[in-house]
Amino acid sequence: MNTNFNHFCDSSNDEQEYPKIRLQRSMTNTFFEIIIGLLLLILWGGIVYKLAISNGEPIPTHIDFSGKADSFESPYWLLLVGGFCTALAFFYMHAAYRPNYLIETSLRITNMRQIKILVYWAYIFTIELISIGIALTFFCWENLTLFLKIMAFVIILTSLTTVIAVRRLK
User: Fold this and answer.
1) Is the distance from CB of 93 to CB of 126 less than 8 angstroms?
2) pLDDT over 80 (residue 77)
């Protein structure tokens, strides 16, 4: 038991240092990176297209029952969506080769199979987020409610499955 009251909430596991792990490139990593690159190209192509056809005018984000647009947004919010997806993609692609960024202290990593699962999760999570960005770029928000609910469920499911798989592989 930790009797030092200055660090009362700390456990002995908090001080554990993980070794610096650096993974080599594999065919699976290359495959995921090609998919992510293509999805980013589609996303940014859609953003450029939307900005070009809008000429700075607001774009419709909601269509009423008669088919007329009744809610509009600035097209420049798409730059925020694209920037967010691109930043996350670069972070996770970088973290795939240096999995120390993916290791949470509550998950005790003891073997390479656990690290591979975390790396694959990072790639799949990136693909899921870019897919949401593409949907926000190409479709009206009103038509996306079911898609976004399904994607939220898929992201939660993949995250929980990854945590369970990593814990079971000890």
Assistant:
1) yes
2) yes
